[in-house]
Amino acid sequence: xAFVKDPCGxxxxxxxxxxxxxxxxxxxHWIILQTMPNSxxxxxxxxxxxxxxxxxxxxxxxxxxxxxGTVPLPQIRIDFSDLHSEKNYxxxxxxxxxxxxxETYRPPRAHHCRICKRCxxxxxxxxxxxxxxxxxRNQKYFLQFLLYVCALALYSxxxxxxxxxxxxxxxxxxxxxxxxxxxxxxxxxxxSALFGLFVIAxxxxxMHAILYDETAVEAVQQKGPYRIHRPKMALLxxxxxxxxxxxxxxxxxxxxxxxxxxxxxxxxx
Length: 269
Known about the structure:
Shape: elongated
Helix content: 40-55%
Mean pLDDT: 84
Number of strands: 6
Structural class: mainly alpha
Largest sheet: 2 strands, antiparallel
Oligomer: single chain
């Protein structure tokens, strides 16, 4: 478990939950219960919408609180004078690098985050919306969070449009109530469009990083794909787990433990 004490990240996390709770409030109270009071679709939409909210919250909390793949610090001070020596600690010397800030060796694809103040394995970027780095151990949950936000935004837009196209004839005709419902619907429509487009752009970028095996940091450094001939499904399975692809959507499904139980710093220093 990890929590970064970054003011910007904490504010972004609070804004995220405020936006989700507001969407849940508007959809449940002002759209479903106000425009579908006598329809069998009302309980269906309430359960379906809140199920997405629940899965979104689970994925987001795991992305926020899980260790993204922090490289452990050595217990004793390391002498870097042997960096160019013949001893390579069982690894290719050109793959392992040295971090002068953490004062430790770091494995391939690990980079130092100035906000987390640690080196992160397969670091893609530091995301303020989860107040954490997107790395080897939480990228799956970050991707799930993006997908559920996109689904929630599309679902909200769908319910708003349905309530406008098929208005309830038996509903209350109170003018103040109708104006309040319209105001909340418009605000939610703007929120869904804004967050939906923003999340789709990030999700496309994440899928490109996974399928082409090149993190955002590596793209900036113009290193190119890490493994050129690696199959796309194998790259996706490394992030989402070795289970059935249908289980990749569940935040409660753990990653491949055999892969992630390998010590992050397995050689003597």
